Amino acid sequence: MDCLFCKIANNEIPSDKVYEDNDILAFRDIKPNAPTHILIIPKAHIASAAEITAENSGVISKIFEAAAKIAKDAGLESGFRVVTNCGESAGQSVMHLHFHLMGGRSFSWPPG
Ligand code: DGP
Predict the structure, then answer these.
(1) Which of 26, 75, 80, 91 is the right S-S partner for 19, CB 3.0 to 4.6 Å?
(2) Is the minimum distance from the CB of 29 to ligand 1 under 6 angstroms?
(3) Does residue 12's CB lie within 6 angstroms of at least one atom of ligand 1?
(4) Which residues contact residue 63 at a Cβ distance below 8 angstroms, ignoring those fewer than 6 apart?
């Protein structure tokens, strides 16, 4: 499968890693939208949030545990945002599930 984030997870494409374990990888976004902008992905291919099932959802709790730890380590005490874009109309450009962890600035709500 020709998937950019599978290649990053397999070390075929380099990334600026901030956390890794057997199931997930966190690395800095190449086009940051905030002073801290990290992508957290499952290593196993899941195309998007629409593909989360009872069989593969265990990794989601691991992603959010890592997000809390990464945010703490990055000093984001005043707040941070975790978001996943699902599908074309939501702006998903890489079809491998990823959560954007962003912090270091204020965010508006609702998002555009
Ligand atoms: P989304 O638009 O929600 O699918 O987010 C995809 C993000 O992936 C976007 O913020 C830019 C980032 N990105 C794309 N290609 C690369 C890459 O090769 N390396 C890294 N680190 N980030 C990438």
Answers:
(1) 26
(2) yes
(3) no
(4) 24, 40, 41, 42, 99
The Cα–Cα gap between 60 and 42 comes to 8
pLDDT in tens, 39-83: 999 999 999 999 999 999 999 999 999 999 999 999 999 999 999
Sign of the torsion formed by the C-alpha atoms of 9, 12, 16 and 18: positive
**Which pTM value belongs to this model?**
0.98
Q: Could you read off the pLDDT of 22-45 as tens digits, one per residue?
A: 999 999 999 999 999 999 999 999
The amino acid sitting at 16 is D
Sorted by sequence, the CB contacts under 8 Å of residue 81 that are 6+ apart come out as: 100, 101, 102, 103, 107
CA 91–ligand 1 middle distance (angstroms):
11
Quote the CA–CA distance of 38 and 50 in Å, as a whole number.
21
